[in-house]
Amino acid sequence: xxxxxxxxxxxxxxxxxxxxxxxxxxxxxxxxxxxxxxxxxxxxxxxxxxxxxxxxxxxxxxxxxxxx
Length: 68
Prior knowledge:
mainly alpha
């Protein structure tokens, strides 16, 4: 029976535990994500969220009387 290499589920990169550098596009993607997260919500969107928050919750239909 032949012995197998890389049985531990590794990717076979042979880096021997060395830290991997992120791909070149990762910095640009992170900057784009950060700019979207930091962007302010439009006033009409805030108004919509406030209106939705002011609606009382509907009664639950998961009680024992809901079986029909």
